[in-house]
Write a structure and sequence with these properties.
This protein is of the alpha/beta class and 263 residues long. The chain has a single domain, classed as Spore Coat Polysaccharide Biosynthesis Protein SpsA, Chain A, CATH 3.90.550. It has seven helices and eleven strands. The strands form three sheets. It has a seven-stranded mixed beta sheet, with helices on both faces. Helix 4 crosses helix 5. 38% of the residues are buried. The structure holds cytidine-5'-triphosphate (CTP) and the ligand C[C@](O)(CO)[C@H](O)COP(=O)(O)O. One of its GO terms (molecular function) is 2-C-methyl-D-erythritol 4-phosphate cytidylyltransferase activity. Pfam families: IspD (PF01128). Its EC number is 2.7.7.60. It comes from Marinomonas profundi. It is an enzyme of class 2 (transferase).
């Protein structure tokens, strides 16, 4: 049986590589902000218990989000690096629910094109060592010589996967791993790296090439085109779900869960 999962959405980055006038998660994608679209993917899923959104202490945009007053959406202040934001999210979750052993999903705010099918695959994938969406490399991959842009070797692409999110791990073990990696000065750019540091071997669950992380200015154009394609094929929703106020929960399952956690 799959228990409802909490989802942590790190959205506290500044989007330095995007070079926009606001953090990239607040840029528009097909009429809504990237962040609102990302939250929408999870909010009405019956196996999502709630969504925790990590925003920057300097954030000036969250209060305008369609989801800011939603019953099942909680906001917390993130940290300097993505890993700090995820750690804060896990601590917030423990305070809010007391849940520690259960799995959580972590999904970048900057990946608003996650399809329903890919979400289903990770939600229903049970593994003691955790799991992440990833795609096999389409390209020939070179490793450079240390310190110079000269090819050292070509990697065997049959064993190369590109990591995506959502990534799924037991909440307590994930926080331990992130804290330990940080304490030892190991920079981790995803949850899986922290678990690898602890000796875990998470499952690679096949993702989709369309689940891009919007990072560079041209990615916004690519995302618009992908959105049109995915929406036309009904692989992703065109309109956002109706946002309901804090007093009227989105669905009875969530309402029951929330009252259980808060009691
Ligand atoms: N301190 C941080 C840094 C990043 N993120 C989030 O982690 C996700 C993936 O990070 P990335 O794409 O690198 O976003 P930015 O850090 O904003 O981009 P850049 O590295 O170009 O500044 C994004 O949703 C971003 O908002 C976060 O929550 N807290
Ligand atoms: C988690 C991630 O999106 C997996 O591809 C990625 O590692 C985030 O890294 P970034 O350094 O924040 O771009």
């Amino acid at each position: 049986m799959t228990l409802p999962l909490w989802v942590i959405i790190p959205a506290a980055g500044v989007g330095q590589r995007m070079q926009a006038s606001c953090p990239k998660q607040y840029l528009s994608l097909a009429g809504h902000t990237i962040l609102d679209r990302t939250i929408d993917i999870f909010i009405s899923h019956p196996l999502v218990a709630g969504v925790l959104v990590g925003i920057s202490a300097e954030d000036a945009y969250w209060s305008d989000s369609k989801w800011c007053d939603h019953d099942s959406v909680h906001c917390f202040v993130g940290g300097k690096e993505r890993s700090d934001t995820v750690q804060e999210g896990l601590r917030y979750l423990f305070n809010l629910t007391g849940i520690k052993q259960q799995d959580v999903l972590v999904h970048d705010a900057a990946r608003p094109l996650l399809t329903h099918a890919a979400l289903e695959r990770i939600i229903h994938h049970h593994s003691e060592q955790g799991a992440l969406l990833a795609v096999p490399s389409k390209d020939t991959v070179k490793r450079q010589q240390c310190g110079s842009a000269i090819v050292e070797t070509t990697l065997d692409r049959n064993i190369i996967w590109l990591a995506q999110t959502p990534q799924r791990f037991p909440a307590r073990a994930l926080l331990d791993a992130l804290e330990k990696a940080q304490a030892q000065g190991i920079a981790v750019t995803d949850e899986c790296s922290a678990m690898e540091f602890m000796g875990w071997h998470p499952d690679l669950v096949v993702g989709e090439n369309s689940n891009i992380k919007i990072t560079l200015p041209e990615d916004v154009l690519i995302a618009e085109a992908l959105f049109t394609y995915l929406a036309k094929k009904n692989l992703i929703k065109k309109s956002l779900a109706k946002a309901k106020a804090k007093t009227s929960p989105a669905n009875p399952r969530l309402s029951n869960l929330n009252s259980k956690y808060h009691s």
